[in-house]
Design a protein that fits this description.
By secondary structure, the protein is α/β, with parallel strands linked by helices. It has helices spanning 13-21, 41-54, 85-95, 132-140, 168-172, 176-185, and strands spanning 6-9, 26-29, 64-74, 77-79, 99-110, 115-127, 161-165. The chain contains six helices and seven strands; from the N terminus they run βαβαββαββαβαα. Strands 1, 2, 3, 4, 5, 6 and 7 form a seven-stranded mixed beta sheet that branches. Helix 3 (85-95) crosses helix 4.
């Protein structure tokens, strides 16, 4: 039987919250991969997103498997999640007062029809110049530790965002419009994957 459901391969509560907000029917699987952060940023998000899905395919669970990888890119370098408070400080100092890119790769595998699709999206973000007091306060909240680039636009980090150019939900971690369009490009009706078939 065809299952009109998204299987989100992600441990991110924010990605789950976005799917829920937009009424998608979904289940989550926790990926067990070590994410790469070296190389061309588009290739990195593609490999990470694809690996999350392919390592978690389950023949008993039919639907659209979705893997997402989001990175921050500045000065030719990929920035992932900080591994320590000191690294969070270093990352925020690097981003302070500058523009950077948030890049997400989405890999979809339809394990009913055996077809796949990959796409990516970039959003430009400008952080205000942070004073040492602001930086220390933000790091002390603990919020930077669970976010690529050391900040959450939808959380306290939103205080320091001067502007964004592009998709807000991409910066949160799941560009929902991109996902919606990719489902259509696979020849499917995204609304059939939503509660009550809106």
């Amino acid at each position: 039987m065809d299952e009109k459901i998204i299987i989100l391969v992600s441990s991110s509560p924010r990605r789950s919250e976005i799917l829920k907000k937009f009424k998608f029917k979904y289940k989550t699987l926790t990926p067990k991969i070590e994410e790469e952060i070296e190389g061309d940023p588009i290739e990195v998000v593609k490999r990470n997103a694809k690996k999350k899905v392919l390592d978690n395919l389950n023949t008993d669970l039919l639907g659209l498997y979705v893997g997402v990888d989001t990175i921050v890119y500045i000065d030719g370098k990929i920035i992932g999640k900080p591994k320590s408070l000191e690294e969070a400080r270093e990352i925020l100092r690097k981003l302070s007062g500058k523009k950077h890119k948030v890049i997400s790769g989405i890999y979809i595998y339809d394990n009913i029809r055996g077809i796949e699709k990959f796409s990516y999206i970039e959003t430009e973000v400008k952080l205000k110049e942070l004073s040492e007091e602001e930086l220390e306060w933000y790091v002390s909240t603990g919020e930077p530790m669970d976010a690529a680039g050391g900040y959450k636009i939808q959380g306290l980090g939103g205080l320091f965002i001067e502007w964004i150019n592009g998709d807000y939900y991409n910066v949160v971690g799941l560009p929902i419009n991109k996902l919606y369009n990719m489902i259509m490009e696979l020849g499917l009706n995204p609304m059939e994957f939503m509660e009550n078939n809106l």
